[in-house]
Amino acid sequence: MPLSYAPIVKRRPGTGDQLANLADYASARESFSWEDARHELEGLPGGGINIAHEALDRAVHAGQGARLAVRFLSRDGVALEFTYAELLSAASRFAHVVESLAPERGDRVFSLLGRGPALHIAALGTLKSGRVFCPLFSAFGPEPVQTRLALGDARILVTTPMLYERKVAGIRERLPQLQWVLLTGAGGRVLPPGTLDLDRLLAAASPEFATVATTAEDPALLHFTSGTTGRPKGVLHVHDAVVAQQVTARLALDLRPNDRYWCTADPGWVTGMTYGVLAPLLCGATSIVDVEEFDPDRWYQLLAEERISVWYTAPTAIRMLMKAGPELAQARTYSSLRFLASVGEPLNPEAVLWGQSMLGMPFHDNWWQTETGGILVANYASVDIKPGSMGLPIPGVQAGIVQRTDDGGGVVEITTPDTPGELAFRPGWPSMFRGYLDNEEKYRQCFAGGWYLSGDLARCDADGYYWFLGRTDDVIKAAGHLISPFEVESALLTHPAVAQSGVIGVPDEVAGTAVKAFVELKSGLRGDAALQRDLLAHARRRLGAALAPREIAFVDALPRTRSGKIMRRLLRARELGQPEGDLSTLEGGA
Amino acid sequence: MNDEKLTQRLLALLTEVAPDIDPATVRLDRDFRDQFDFDSMDLFNFATSIVQTFGVDVAEKDYRRLLSIEKAAEYLRNKPAAS
Known about the structure:
The complex is a heterodimer of chains A (590) and B (83). Chain A is α/β, with parallel strands linked by helices and 590 residues long.
């Protein structure tokens, strides 16, 4: 396959640079074992393992308690800092609160919070208490919030008065299992009925908490991800994931104890939780968290003035920076930067190279998904980059390209280079998910012939580099977030004018992919600009800005299979002017 | 354009970008992000429609100056093409 961009050749070890954590890929793959990686952890006194213990207690035991753990930057630039010891105390207080309210180990604690200390404290405190933590993205509308709280059997929800009022109060009565709602940042104001003042509870709790003795296989984190059909899937991870969280951050992000590290992902999503909250603590780094939304000038300022050394961001953000022009980038120098990484969707080669010309080094794209619990394919500091490729598998992980067999039950591995197929992995890395909540069958369907099937299409070239090609299903990857067409369609269907809808991803210059909805109206209704607006408003109110479609088009009839299923594939082909493929199952006339 | 008219035009643009917002409830002096869900894509779209409607150039670094109705009006009043 032709390569349109020349590889970026890395300097070889021994040329004077400090060696990368992964100095030589081939020998690292050769010598790596997950058992060795596990031995680098402290472990609990009784022999168990706990993510928060490794993130906080271990550092304090090693005499690193006074080191700066996280520095939160508010909108007006004021910083709020926590050392490792302070974060441990705060998390311990939270653990006491959780223990007193949710008596069962394994009870689920949800957060609906923007970026800020409360989210980190809630996550770490919940993990310490042996309960399961599930972050929700704060820009979700009431509908996705309710679905996830209900599916996840949330016992405790941590949120703010404003988010509660906007997104939870109206759905609370539909959530009988949600026993406690803890509000932070109330500042002494009167709280809505049925909620507690978290800040008060924390102040009254002890800052010492003996970590609950979790085992490697005890559940720790729950993240929701989108499927093509049906409800979102709750992906369960266990405490053993910490082994991979630490190792992958060291190898794929080159993260080291003295780094000032900025992960721009929101901890409401799996990247922000794993590599924003947990991994930097596991590596002993200092994390910089900007509570503010994306703003090009602010971001450059932050990179320069906060002396960021390792930066982990996303293609949509990089493309927005590229749009903002070179002058803004060149107005500052970034002398502390050492490593740039990107995740969420494939990083286009132009963006990889833009890093090199504007920030002095290329972006290193990497690949993983909620189910894998950690980075599985990456570009590394010491390895040549082929721009546009997601890179090479992490040491300890065997990747492959496979094809499902016609009978549906098996797979064959494709070993001819550059042949498209499904990206797959041999199970066994510690952060692999242990199940979908209440959906054993869906979980089983992810495995065949001794492989975990990722649902992503890719190819592997003759040098072993992997290249993303698309999804095997209809799930939409917009601005790095997986969006279920079904969830968006369902929300549109609740509008009185809508008879049917089909939702697909369409190319978008900035977001990579944007959500577009095709709507069939109930008979007698005509689609006009006012109704279009009304539908957009309806979708945004229910789903929130992150999931709502950016565009709505009216159609007379949506293409359906004979069994009545909407053919999103055909909508997509028509939208993009691609061949429509086999139409034999299509309902006549469409 | 007088202040009242400018405010109404900006409110109309805002609710076009985010039609879930009820213009009657928008506090003119408050940051959008403190009042409703308004993400960076929304800001990008709001800025783009300001550029189209008022025929002014808005640099990306100035987007943050459009984050409340009053701030956006103030910004436009200081732009020659807007008056």
